[in-house]
């Protein structure tokens, strides 16, 4: 199957999931997760009309960005080490992985007032191997991060649990949607991104309210 065929299939599944949940398919953003894939794979996706791409590692993304079209909007979805912050400044339209107040504060200081759109990562599954704020701390984290100069808080992100239990991801997504709605009442219209759902669970995420799905292997194939 060609990339164009896979993309068409994914868009069709997004549309069907949206219809099932009585939502407008146009309200759901497809983010192509290009981590580990070479520039020519990203160029192929670009030629098929995609403009939003996500990378996991700062160094890997900085090696790719110069060789690709300038109108690509890059997102950073991986964990960030504070000693790598200077390298990422000005490179990413949206940072999905603000997982601690320590990181939020460090990024704010390095930004020196320059705006950076960010999402708070929430560990909705409670898995110890995952980073992110505890759901019980989300409300306070939202409040504190909105006070930090330079950080433009746009929404929340979570990674669904790795499990064969189909109900488990849904529980995580329901939790994040509830937290998102509570936070949106406090912040207002600019708080509008609910990033949840990947290749294996994006349809469930859409049914539970996701506005942005992060699709990698279902688009690009198995990772090397």
Can you walk through the features of this model?
The chain is an alpha/beta fold and 224 residues long. It has a single domain (3-220), classed as Alanine racemase (TIM Barrel). The protein has 9 helices and 8 strands. Strands 7-6-5-4-3-2-1-8 form an 8-stranded parallel beta sheet. Helix 4 links the parallel strand 3 (73-76) and strand 4. The longest helix is centred in the last third of the chain and has 21 residues, at 167-187.
List keywords for this structure.
single chain, eight-stranded parallel beta sheet, 8 strands, alpha/beta, 9 helices, TIM Barrel, about 220 residues
The structure class reads alpha/beta
What CATH calls the topology is TIM Barrel
CATH superfamily: Alanine racemase
What's the CATH class, please?
Alpha Beta
CATH architecture title: Alpha-Beta Barrel
Largest sheet: 8 strands, parallel
Shape: globular
Reading side by side through the largest sheet, how are the strands ordered? 7-6-5-4-3-2-1-8
Mean pLDDT: 95
Return Rg in Å. 17 Å
Annotation, overall tally of beta strands: 8
Helix content: 25-40%
Give the helix tally: 9
């Amino acid at each position: 199957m060609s990339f164009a065929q896979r993309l068409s299939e994914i868009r069709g599944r997004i549309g069907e999931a949206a219809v099932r949940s009585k939502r407008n398919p146009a309200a759901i953003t497809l983010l192509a997760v290009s981590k580990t894939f070479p520039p020519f794979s990203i160029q192929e996706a670009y030629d098929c009309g995609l403009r939003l791409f996500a990378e996991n590692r700062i160094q890997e993304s900085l090696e790719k960005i110069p060789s690709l079209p300038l109108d690509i909007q890059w997102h950073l979805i991986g964990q960030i080490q504070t000693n790598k912050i200077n390298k990422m400044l000005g490179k990413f339209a949206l940072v999905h992985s603000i997982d601690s107040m320590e990181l939020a504060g460090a990024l704010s200081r390095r930004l020196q007032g320059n705006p950076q759109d960010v999402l708070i990562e929430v560990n909705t599954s409670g898995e110890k191997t995952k980073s992110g704020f505890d759901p019980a701390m989300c409300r306070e984290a939202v409040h504190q991060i909105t006070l930090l100069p330079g950080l433009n808080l746009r929404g929340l992100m979570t990674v669904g649990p790795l499990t064969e239990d189909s109900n488990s991801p849904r529980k995580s997504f329901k939790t994040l949607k509830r937290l998102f709605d509570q936070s949106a009442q406090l912040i207002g219209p600019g708080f509008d991104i609910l990033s949840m759902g990947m290749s294996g669970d994006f349809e469930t995420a859409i049914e539970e309210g996701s506005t942005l799905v992060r699709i990698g292997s279902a688009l690009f194939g198995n990772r090397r």
